[in-house]
């Protein structure tokens, strides 16, 4: 887990590299509903939260690169002359961003960067997008590239796709860079139009239960799912050319061509199409202040991710299904790419204490683990803090 506060990052930077030019704070994200819809060009409903990656950055006068990952206690030294994938993995999040700026024909300078934070790694809060987006944000300002936040989110996504090798969608860097206090972001991942949806209910808490399962297959399975969705689109498009992504398809379209689908690809596509619809239902319910409907949709999402998209795991199922049955819980589901990470729970404020006690028992008795539970606040996106 990354656990360094901004002070720890500044101190480490100064000890190793001297005075920083800037400190950037980049938030992790939650997603209320709309899982695996972003790469199918559908809708999502994420928000930036009060868990951060902090980055200390200074430009150099030469072509050198020095990075320090505080929470790993590891350093990296390289050069802009040879930006290539590092076996250590973590430097790739920064190298990929540099590589994407260079692809745009921008003139780069060498850079020193130390980072750390309290976004738990691999727990579905998207620490990687927070890191990529934060680095891109800092360099954009310091090197005077003049790109806007949406362009930086797109650049971060390309960096993850091309340099890290995960074919993820736009949701995570978008939420981290574009977040607003007390707001969810209803994002159309096709044209990137978005709307801030107020979420100011003092009587409701957004609570994450960390399964503490970290699976390295997230990236490979993610890419397999994405390819399966594309196979489904190819079948549908051969009949209806206007279907360019699963976002354009209905369950009726899918049903009409069922014999051409393998059962597995059918399940994947059916999940995505239904999930996209659920985001719209959930947004309409939020507008009416009807969080019961939103919560019920979240529960359906979990079932779909577990049985249709098949990216859950036993620990996540235990956490979501027991939470769903608890009083004061409006909805509970696994969040993020899957195969581990957190569940997201909408819990009535009055029921928070009993939820934590009840889930504590579930952790200890059914998972054999100590509970790790985070109550999140919705916060603004990536910014300079000094
Ligand atoms: C990961 C990806 C996102 C999104 C989610 C699933 O977080 O980075 O682009 O696809 O999984 O919704």
Brief synopsis:
The protein has 386 residues and is an alpha+beta fold.
Question: What small molecules accompany the polymer chains?
Answer: alpha-D-galactopyranose
Mean pLDDT across the residues is 96
Question: Helix/strand-derived class?
Answer: alpha+beta
Low-confidence stretches: none
Q: What's the arrangement of strands in the largest beta sheet?
A: 5-4-6-3-1-13
The CATH architecture of the largest domain can be named as 2-Layer Sandwich
Model description:
- The protein is α+β, with helices and mostly antiparallel strands.
- The chain folds into 2 domains: 6-200 and 380-385, Ribosomal Protein S5, domain 2; 204-376, Alpha-Beta Plaits (2-Layer Sandwich), CATH 3.30.70.890.
- Helix content is 42%, strand content 21%.
- The protein contains 11 helices and 13 strands.
- A 6-stranded mixed beta sheet has the order 5-4-6-3-1-13, with helices on both faces. Strands 10-11-9-12 form a 4-stranded antiparallel beta sheet. The chain has a 3-stranded antiparallel beta sheet with strand order 2-7-8, sandwiched between helices.
- The radius of gyration is 21 Å and the shape is globular.
- The chain binds alpha-D-galactopyranose (GLA).
- Alpha-D-galactopyranose binds at residues 35-36, 38-39, 126, 168-169, 171-172, 336-337.
- The site of alpha-D-galactopyranose has 11 residues, from α5.
